[in-house]
């Protein structure tokens, strides 16, 4: 059986017409992985790095959706859909302070 993300990568790279390319696959959590970075050549695909589903930004949506009372884990899609209707100018993130290395803390 072909690994889930490798199948996505192959279906994108091989018909692309490129001799060589970086291939990024991002989805829910096929095979427990949410993202795969691969290098495609005429010889095939070499997986360079995979990211486990526990590091998926989608899990953040799931947690927020549950706290908002939108339902169980299947409701993260509802929240993602609502995001397009938001007004980012209405809210500020002054309560977050950026730290070196990309992390943040609450003020």
Please tell me about this protein's structure.
It contains three helices and five strands, in the order H-E-E-E-H-H-E-E. By secondary structure, the chain is of the alpha+beta class. Helix 2 crosses helix 3 (76-83). The longest helix has 11 residues, at 57-67. The chain starts with a helix and ends with a strand. The model has no long low-confidence stretch (mean pLDDT 81). This is Carbamoyltransferase-like protein. Residues 2-96 form the Carbamoyltransferase domain. InterPro entries: Carbtransf_dom, NodU/CmcH_Carbamoyltrnsfr. Keywords: Transferase.
Topology:
Elements (H helix, E strand, L loop, with lengths): L3 H10 L7 E6 L6 E9 L2 E9 L4 H11 L8 H8 L12 E3 L5 E3 L1
Antiparallel strand pairs: 1-2, 2-3, 4-5
Helix pairs in contact: 2-3
Brief summary:
By secondary structure, this protein is α+β, with helices and mostly antiparallel strands.
- How would you sum up the global shape? elongated
What is the number of E strands? Answer: 5
Based on secondary structure, the structural category is alpha+beta
Overall tally of domains: 2
Strand composition percent: 25-35%
Query: What is the average per-residue confidence, as pLDDT, rounded to a whole number?
Result: 81
Q: What's the story with the biggest beta sheet?
A: 3 strands, antiparallel
Which ranges are low-confidence, i.e. pLDDT below 50, for 5 or more consecutive residues? none
Counting DSSP H or I runs of 4 or more residues, the number of helices is: 3
Order of helices and strands: HEEEHHEE
Main sheet: strand order = 1-2-3
Helix content: 25-40%
InterPro entries: Carbtransf_dom, NodU/CmcH_Carbamoyltrnsfr
Organism: Streptomyces capillispiralis
Keywords: Transferase
Domain Carbamoyltransferase: 2-96
């Amino acid at each position: 059986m072909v690994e889930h993300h490798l199948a996505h990568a192959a279906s994108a790279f091989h018909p692309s017409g490129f001799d060589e390319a970086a291939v990024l696959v991002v989805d829910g959590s096929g095979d427990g992985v949410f993202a795969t970075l691969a290098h495609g050549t005429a010889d095939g695909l070499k997986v360079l790095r995979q990211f486990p589903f526990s590091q998926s930004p989608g899990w953040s949506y799931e947690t927020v959706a549950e706290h908002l009372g939108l339902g169980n884990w299947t409701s993260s899609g509802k929240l993602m859909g609502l995001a397009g209707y938001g007004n980012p100018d209405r809210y500020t993130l002054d309560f977050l302070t950026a730290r070196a290395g990309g992390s943040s803390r609450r003020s």
